[in-house]
Amino acid sequence: MAVIGAGPGGVSAALALHRQGFDVRVFEKQPEPRPLGGAVLLSVPVLAVLRHYGVDLSNFGSLTVTEFRNHKNNLRSRLPFNQTVEASFGIKGWHYGMLRANAFARMMELMPEGMLVPNADFDHYTQTADSVTVVFKDGETIEADILVGADGIRSGVSRQAFGEPELFHVGLRVWLAWCDPIAGIPAQTGRIIHSHKYQASFFPMLHDGKPGYEWWIVEPCEENAPAPADVASHIGKILRNFPDPLPRFLQATNLETQIFRWDIYNRPSLEQWSSGRVVCLGDAVHPVSPYAAYGMGMAIEDGYFLAKALTGADLSDARQVAKGFNGFEAQRVNYVNHHVEFARKLGNAFHKLPYPLAKVRDFLFDHTGILDRMIRRDYLADAEKMSLAIQELHLN
């Protein structure tokens, strides 16, 4: 089978499918895969998937207790740990912070020699009832039983399978940075802090096994707005109204090498991720805003669930392929769409309300448990249910 795109989702699918005994090749247009962005938070079920592949989780990430706070540093919500989930996986907590490149490198180390095919730029595919022919931009072709599109938010595979993605700018820009440790921060604590307009946040992480911090800013931004000429001044003006330690992160960060900026795009949710012998996953079908803190994790989960749904399938049999794809979609489509849409809902609530409504929002979040209930009901509940359902990854 052929996987287009060697990002986290494509590599996860390849590793999982290889473990099922399938012959897999991953085609990547770059000379070598490289993950975009800086640090990342991975949740416990994602870590369990990586452990299943063979990733050593010792010294892999930094356990984080996630808190939502206001700009005066008053607590609004603290994500609880589910003791049943912890006991089932044998992994404490829920979120672990690490540098994205480190996590991805651990995955790449597990790929068998010859599985990755670099400098292979996808152009289009044709399919019959029996196979898929993939055509690359240099004219080379390959034939496969199934084609997995894991080629990112502007996926060529997804575009051919489902039409134009109708990408839309969500009105947010993110500055994601990381730095070495700084003093005076409670251990294993990450904070998502909001003013009436901005989010500024930080989490502990491990970088090559060494402690540090990831921090980021989410700001409202129009599509195609130019980047500020003076990044340090721009970020400094935002952070000066946030509580310690956030203003200190700027001075601890090399803005030439340790910060990444991107505008956030989404697409309308799809109800189907497959077409014949072609299936897509990750950002190719569900790009997600930063409020989910879950993009890389969901792509890794997608790869695992795709392979699980195809367990024992004869890929030459179109009926078995269809059954596998239907099972994959039943496991993932509604679950992922819910998280993507909830993340967009939170982004709109925190960054798009006009000033009078923003004041009402802040009053409710500060003086009632509404934000806590939203997070538990719309973010944690389904994730915990999914975690308890994948019993084959449990240790207990």
Describe what you observe in this structure.
It is a single chain. With 396 residues, the protein is of the alpha/beta class. It has a domain at 2-41 and 100-168 and 267-367: FAD/NAD(P)-binding domain. The chain is 36% helix and 25% strand. The chain contains 11 helices and 18 strands. It has helices spanning 8-19, 44-53, 83-89, 100-108, 156-162, 231-239, 246-251, 295-309, 318-351, 355-367, 370-389, and strands at 2-4, 25-27, 39-43, 62-70, 75-78, 95-99, 116-117, 122-127, 132-136, 141-144, 147-149, 168-179, 189-194, 199-207, 210-220, 259-266, 274-275, 278-280. Strands 3, 4, 5, 6, 12, 13, 14, 15 and 16 form a 9-stranded mixed β-sheet that branches. The protein is globular.
Radius of gyration: 21 Å
Task: Briefly note the CATH topology name of the domain at 2-41 and 100-168 and 267-367.
Answer: FAD/NAD(P)-binding domain
**Strand element count:** 18
Indicate the percent of residues in helices.
25-40%
CATH H level, superfamily name of the domain at 2-41 and 100-168 and 267-367 = FAD/NAD(P)-binding domain
The separation of the N and C termini measures 34 Å
Helix count equals 11
Provide mean pLDDT, rounded: 94
Strand content: 25-35%
Would you state the CATH class of the domain at 2-41 and 100-168 and 267-367?
Alpha Beta
Shape: globular
Helix/strand/pairing category:
alpha/beta
Which regions are unreliable across 5 or more consecutive residues at pLDDT < 50?
none
Order of helices and strands: EHEEHEEHEHEEEEEHEEEEHHEEEHHHH
